[in-house]
Amino acid sequence: MPKEILPIVDKPTIQFIIEEAVAAGIEDILIVTGKGKRAIEDHFDSVPELENNLRDKNKLELLHLVEETTNINLHFIRQSKPKGLGDAILQAKGFVGNEPFIVMLGDDIVESKVPCAKQLMNQYEKTHSSIIGVQNVPHEETYRYGIIDPINEYSKGLYNVKGFVEKPNPEDAPSDLAILGRYLLTPQIFDFLETQEPGAGGEIQLTDAINSLNEVQRVFAYDFEGERFDVGDKFGFIKTTMQFALKHPEIKDDVAKLVDDLYQQIHKKDKKSK
């Protein structure tokens, strides 16, 4: 099963991403999939039998969740080989045409009053340039992310950028502002992706193309508001699930008790081992 379909409590990860896009006012959405990810397309298929069954049993909340997945203008394209994020975005060239577009990575869920994608769109209205979503990360974790090298703060939270560094060692990191799965890109990025030489791991690196774009057309970084959840690895997925479960109206009390019980058990074991 693709990790994008794994549920955070009762909602697949990909559903959070799509809901953010819809809340931002995006009407046409392209999902780039790959080998073994047909389940993503199946998730968004209409299932009349299930919808009718839920309606007959007056399970309206579940019905709403199901209908949310099917009433969206979605398109799919398959990346034939895993050649990196840059290549995945290049698959969208025909779909995007000559318009700016939002890239939202499936490993990152963002909770915010204003959808993160909408925040980037608002900044684009001021600059008419590409906007990269960033937030501060612990300095010792910069090796996990693309990091920006800021020149100055152009306006509140919006940075002029000298360059973008892919996963630098902490001692080499130019800042602690990390790229966190949200990009607003102008269509000129495709010119650089098409000619980009493969980088680390033989993949087409989006960071390299953004650096090239920044040489001819300013690229900004925006420190977006909201809490970002990383579901790209096992611990991040479990942590996110627990955090969302503790806010879920149906189960939050039971989950809180479970967490407390587990803490007490671990605390007792620690005492015995001493």
Automatic annotation (TrEMBL):
Q: Which reaction does it catalyse?
A: alpha-D-glucose 1-phosphate + UTP + H(+) = UDP-alpha-D-glucose + diphosphate
Q: Which InterPro entries match?
A: GalU_uridylyltTrfase_bac/arc, NTP_transferase_dom, Nucleotide-diphossugar_trans
Q: Which Pfam families match?
A: NTP_transferase (PF00483)
Indicate whether Magnesium appears among the record's keywords: no
Output the Gene Ontology terms for molecular function. UTP:glucose-1-phosphate uridylyltransferase activity
EC number assigned by the record: 2.7.7.9
Where is the secretion signal located? Answer: none
Q: Which PANTHER family match?
A: UTP--GLUCOSE-1-PHOSPHATE URIDYLYLTRANSFERASE (PTHR43197:SF1)
Provide the protein name.
UTP--glucose-1-phosphate uridylyltransferase
